[in-house]
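Thread amino acids onto this structure.
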């Protein structure tokens, strides 16, 4: 999904939209992504950007989109922002990243807004099937061990743990750290693959 900075006078906002069509089925559903974040906030998880508007009228931009409040912070990808030079600071950020995931998994999935994201059937089986298909589509070289692990997982899908909110791609590159306190996760971003399922 694409993310754009919008400026209107002194105000700043962020617009999130899918890439240009055609899109694969169920991919890039930004309206669903926004609804999940709204449901999570309602359930008490606050480390999210504030969603200001969701538009499912494709006559506006040609695709669904949502607008959220602009947050001041850093997304850590290739370089560390100031304040994370030392090992102690990086350890503190790693600890807060774990705490953030614990907070996500603690959200009450029985609340009506979150319960709407639960799907019947085995989340774990769906994940094994999806990632097996993704490997077949995206592999760039032969790695027989990956196929062996996939076959093993298909035959040994673990019994599910009680369901939680699952981000789907939780990692340092999908969170924003506070500009004035880079050891603190300010917001979790990129909820496109979010679901209700096994927290593993």
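Threaded sequence (200 positions):
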């Amino acid at each position: 999904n694409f993310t754009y900075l919008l400026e209107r006078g002194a105000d700043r906002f962020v617009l999130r939209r899918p890439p240009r069509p055609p899109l694969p089925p169920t991919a890039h559903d930004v309206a669903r992504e926004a609804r999940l974040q709204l449901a999570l906030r309602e359930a008490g998880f606050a480390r999210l950007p504030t969603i200001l508007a969701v538009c499912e009228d494709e006559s506006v931009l040609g695709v669904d989109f949502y607008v959220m409040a602009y947050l001041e912070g850093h997304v850590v990808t290739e370089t560390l922002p100031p304040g994370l030079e030392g090992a102690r600071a990086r350890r503190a950020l790693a600890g807060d990243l774990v705490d953030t995931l614990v907070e996500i998994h603690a959200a009450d999935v029985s609340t009506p807004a979150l319960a709407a994201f639960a799907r019947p059937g085995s989340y774990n089986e769906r994940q094994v099937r999806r990632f097996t298909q993704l490997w077949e589509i995206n592999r760039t070289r032969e790695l027989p061990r990956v196929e062996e692990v996939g076959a093993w997982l298909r035959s040994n899908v673990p019994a599910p743990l009680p369901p939680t909110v699952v981000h789907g791609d939780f990692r340092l590159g999908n969170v924003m750290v506070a500009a004035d306190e880079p050891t603190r996760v300010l917001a979790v971003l990129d909820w496109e693959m979010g679901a209700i399922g096994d927290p593993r």
